[in-house]
Amino acid sequence: MTVGAADLLRSEVRKAMSLRSWWALALPPVVIGFLSGLFYGTIASSELLADFSDAGSLAVTLAAAVTVGAVVLFAAVFGAVHTAGDLRHGSLATSLVAIPRRGRVVSAQLTVCAGVGASYAVVSVAAALLSLAAVGGDVVSVSVSDAVGLLLAAVVAGVLWSAIGCGLGLLTGSPTWSAVALVAWLPLGETVVAVVLNGIGADAVVRLLPGLATVGTIARGQGPGDLVLPFGAAAVCLLLWAVGLAGAGWWRLSRRDLA
């Protein structure tokens, strides 16, 4: 019996949706997005910032940064847990019985995780924008074009970070260690590396780190040029990180003994 690409993808979707991890990891970024919109929208519309002309745009920027930061973290963790969990529990070996081509199975995993990462981005950013609009009043206004641009940039970031997580999960083969590595890198690890690189005069390299490449992607050309790359360069840089880690994970899997 020949198993086609659609059948393989359907199997991977069922496998992912049968576990609680997809919705358990979706809750934090959605809640964080909603609360960040409430928080920054309330501050922007308060009397404390009545004389600050850019309060609304600053509120949108900060809420988007916090929300997308949560999205990429949890999308990456989902990708890592999904692929490493397949290895740990032997379900990947079962898939390879039906389709003895590891590249096709990895492609299906990446596709499913990309869909999950995109979903996290859309729902979380929408929650942030809705809460901003609810409490921001006339101070916080987001045009349709800005909202669509922000959603698309968030989707790109969510998809690419899910691929980074998938690659890391395939490299380590451990859901725990790959998740710990992501949680340690994004909030703190990259900051430490950036400080060290700045200290040795490698400022240009700092902007190539995946976290700052994500900031440049979300900023869409509105961020500080000395800190983040322009939108196009930042998106390409993040894509290269995703391709590199996903490719490394596939290479490790192709040489791993699954017996």
Mean pLDDT: 86
Separation, N- and C-terminal Cα atoms = 22 Å
Fraction in helix? over 70%
Give the overall silhouette: globular
Kindly state the number of beta strands. Answer: 0
For the biggest sheet, the summary is: none
Question: How would you explain this protein's 3D organization?
Answer:
It is built from 11 helices and no strands. The chain has 259 residues and is an all-alpha fold. The mean pLDDT is 86. The chain is globular.
Primary descriptors:
259 residues; 0% strand; mainly alpha; globular
In short:
The chain has helices at residues 5-17, 21-24, 27-44, 55-89, 91-98, 102-136, 144-172, 175-199, 203-206, 210-219, 231-254. The protein is mainly α.
Topology diagram in text:
Blueprint (H helix, E strand, L loop, with lengths): L4 H13 L3 H4 L2 H18 L10 H35 L1 H8 L3 H35 L7 H29 L2 H25 L3 H4 L3 H10 L11 H24 L5
Helix pairs in contact: 1-6, 3-4, 3-6, 4-6, 4-7, 4-8, 6-7, 6-11, 7-8, 7-10, 7-11, 10-11
